[in-house]
Design a protein that fits this description.
520 residues; alpha/beta; Cytidine Deaminase, domain 2; 3 domains; 23 strands; binds the ligand NC(=O)c1ncn([C@@H]2O[C@H](COP(=O)(O)O)[C@@H](O)[C@H]2O)c1NC=O
Length: 520
């Protein structure tokens, strides 16, 4: 059936005038609430105010506007049931065929640091969700639009189908409407269960945590082929996050591709100089900074050419043709950069299967990290701490040189992205050997030095980072014997004295960060 009467009541008024004008041209009668009606009338659109339509003026500072049987019966009546149709006729209530509503901006209001509880409560929309839910429930007869982005598609449908909207489109709109009210109520619950005290102070973690993510795409499979998987993203896109990727070419991204691409992108983003990060199985197997993407790539690759095979490679600068050509000479699963030159894109296009992503280089962090455990969810704030040179404490007789200090900070940044226990040897802005994910720190130290040897890289004169303190001197002895002359670690072990003495005994410099970077 065609749309004859619409009710428009929106807080976000973007695009509403043009939309209402188009509806009016299509012969639709428009009902509207206070502010929306004023805006439409001023733009020359004929509207009937809800108060005069119901004969019941808005009251209680707008708390009651549309909450009236004439509105809700008009929305909820089933057009396929003669009893409903005749009940409307008997009560002289015209049907409402289209509901265009978006809600009071609750999330934006409570995001203000000085938002009071009273303000928050006043921004809980009551009449809006009631209409949205009514219209969505009755989607067989009513179309409901909660997102201005859907105005053009609705108009297109109406224009091509003589004022009608297809049942499929109405169903999709209804799904979106219920998701809209669910997210809205979730935000209210998160807020109310996180406040305490007279000043509505917010705790980081609400008593009820309502999460709201939207499907980007189902994935072919999960971590293994027998597992099903999908990728969801935060509807409030975090600036510069992997989820804002654009895929320029290549096969469909897999579950592991996305997880590794995230590790690569988060790591490469932390560097200011041109950097390249190569990830395998969630760990960096090569990281370097240099004066160009090509130079950084070559150094990163040389850390561990064997492991780099089939890696995920990220850059923090525009990928140019020379870097693209070099990367294409190895087997690579995913390439990520903020932009690509046209020449680089042509170069990459020669291997059509390689997945190529661009992600805007912006600073942004997830508010929370999540890890699922049996029957529960671990939630924490992200590890977005970066130590500065003045936070470092030299604990040995030998001081690090300026170059060593730079390399120690570089090694420390890399170690943050290596699974614990992490040991990272570096020199001159590049990794030389990475020991990752071992149950003992001393084994990680041995593995890192073995890997450097396998890649024909000398550790003589290198620096080394340990993501957490050395519990005994044995780990330190291994890295010093391998050639390290300066060490960065958090400190804080009960045996710090023993470890410092070991460093002094062997004439190496050691600095404490006072911060640990476990990563599991
Ligand atoms: N109280 C009601 O009956 C009611 N009916 C609609 N609203 C909301 O009022 C807003 C639009 O108001 P206005 O047209 O006055 O700018 C919309 O976000 C809509 O969801 C209401 N407001 C709050 O509950």
């Amino acid at each position: 059936m065609s749309i004859k009467q619409a009710l428009i009541s929106v807080s976000d008024k973007s695009g509403i005038v043009e939309f209402a004008q188009a509806l009016h041209k299509l012969g639709v009668t428009i009902l509207s609430t206070g502010g929306t009606a004023r805006l439409l009338r001023d733009a020359g659109v004929a509207v009937t105010e809800v108060g005069s339509y119901t004969g019941f003026p808005e009251m209680l500072d707008g708390r009651v506007k549309t909450l009236h049987p004439k509105i809700h019966a008009g929305i909820l009546a089933r057009r396929d049931l003669s009893e409903h149709v005749s009940a409307l006729e008997k009560a002289e209530i015209p049907a409402i065929d289209l509901v265009v509503v978006n809600l009071y901006p609750f999330s934006q209001t409570v995001a203000q640091p000085d938002c009071s509880l009273e303000e928050a409560i006043e921004n809980i929309d009551i009449g809006g969700p009631t209409m949205v839910r009514a219209a969505a429930k009755n989607y067989q007869s009513v179309a409901v639009v909660t997102d201005p982005a859907d105005y053009p598609a609705l108009l297109d449908e109406m224009k091509t189908a003589g004022g009608e909207v297809t049942p499929e489109f109405r169903f999709r709109l209804a799904c979106k409407a219920f998701s809209h009210t669910a997210a809205y109520d979730g935000a209210i619950s998160n807020y109310l269960t996180s406040i305490e005290g007279e000043n509505a102070q917010r705790r980081t973690f609400p008593e009820r945590l309502n999460l709201n993510f939207s499907l980007v795409q189902p994935l072919r499979y999960g971590e293994n082929p027998h597992q099903q998987a999908a990728f969801y993203r935060d509807p409030q896109l975090v600036p510069g996050s992997l989820a804002s990727y654009r895929q320029l070419q290549g096969k469909e991204l897999s579950y592991n591709n996305i997880a590794d691409a995230d590790a690569a992108w988060e790591c490469v983003k932390t560097f200011d100089s041109p950097a390249c990060v190569i990830i395998k199985h969630a760990n960096p197997c090569g990281v370097a900074i240099s004066d160009s993407p090509l130079a950084a790539y070559k150094l990163a690759f040389a850390t561990d050419p064997t492991s780099a095979f089939g890696g995920i490679i990220a850059f923090n600068r525009t990928l140019d043709a020379s870097a693209a050509e070099a990367v294409m000479s190895q087997f690579v699963e995913v390439i990520i950069a903020p932009q690509m030159t046209d020449e680089a894109r042509q170069m990459l296009a020669r291997k059509a299967n390689v997945r190529v992503l661009t992600v805007p280089l912006q600073a942004g962090n997830n508010a929370h990290d999540f890890k699922r455990v049996g029957g529960g969810l671990l939630v924490q704030t992200p590890d977005n701490l970066n130590v500065t040179p003045n936070q470092l404490k030299v604990v040995t007789e030998v001081q690090p040189t300026a170059q060593q200090l730079q390399d120690l900070l570089f090694a420390w940044r890399v170690a943050k992205f290596v699974k614990s226990n992490a040991i990272v040897f570096c020199a001159n802005g590049r990794t030389l050997g990475v020991g990752a994910g071992q149950m003992s720190r001393v084994d990680s130290a041995r593995i890192a030095s073995i890997k450097a040897g396998n890649a024909n890289l000398t550790l003589a004169g290198s620096v080394v980072a340990s993501d957490a303190f050395f519990p005994f001197r044995d780990g330190l002895d291994v890295v010093v014997q391998a050639g390290a002359v300066a060490v960065i670690q958090p400190g804080g072990s009960v045996r710090d004295e023993e470890v410092i003495a070991a460093a002094d005994e062997q004439g190496v410099a050691m600095v404490f960060t006072g911060v640990r970077h476990f990563r599991h």
